[in-house]
Amino acid sequence: MQVSLSATLQPAAEGLATIEIEARTIRELLARLVERYPRMSAHMETGIAVSINGEIFRDTWREEIPAGSEVYLLPRLQGG
Fold first, then answer.
1. Less Cβ around it within 10 Å: N or C end of the chain?
2. What gap in Å lies between CA 40 and CA 37, rounded to an integer?
3. What is the pTM (predicted TM-score) of this model?
């Protein structure tokens, strides 16, 4: 699948705006992302939100990613 990264996350992924990665769930996607781009782990600690077809997931990492989905990763916004 193709995953788009927000401008804030791109430096941790060697400057790439989009990446090709295989994953069935959000948890698997994030794990493979850190395997490929270790600098991404710092963003995982502060929080990442995952948008799948326009719906944002923050803590439901078991969510399956349907084939052909539009996936976008962005830093998690802190409320307050």
1. C
2. 6
3. 0.87
